[in-house]
Amino acid sequence: MILKIGILNFIFSISTWKTQTILYQNKENKNLKVEFQMLDIGFAGYDKREVEIHYFTDWFYTFKPRKENYEPSKWDIINKEVNELNLVY
């Protein structure tokens, strides 16, 4: 019984990356965006990353780490707050 509860707690506590801010949107492809995301890792705080996401639909997308040497002329600055973690600051 204790083993079952421990496994279930682990399975249901798995968190996903949440978008906090949409930073950039590609000028040529509006479905390609650069987002700042955070992951709640419990007592240790939050993990952070910036990724380039290509949305095919709202539920289907691909992502890759953001390149350091990207061309700024191909991107519009958006800076739209999404705050999916509902952080108060």
How are the strands of the biggest sheet laid out side by side?
Answer: 4-3-2-1-5
Poorly predicted segments:
none
Number of strands: 5
Order of helices and strands: HEEEEE
Number of DSSP helices? 1
Write the layout of secondary structure elements.
Blueprint: H1 2-12, E1 18-26, E2 32-40, E3 46-55, E4 61-65, E5 75-81
Antiparallel strand pairs: 1-2, 1-5, 2-3, 3-4
Quick rundown:
By secondary structure, this protein is mainly beta. The protein has one helix at residues 2-12, and strands spanning 18-26, 32-40, 46-55, 61-65, 75-81.
Task: Explain the overall architecture.
This protein has 89 residues and is mainly beta. It is 12% helix and 45% strand. The protein has one helix and five strands, in the order H-E-E-E-E-E. A five-stranded antiparallel sheet has the order 4-3-2-1-5, with no helix packed on it. The longest helix has 11 residues. The chain starts with a helix and ends in an 8-residue tail after the last strand.
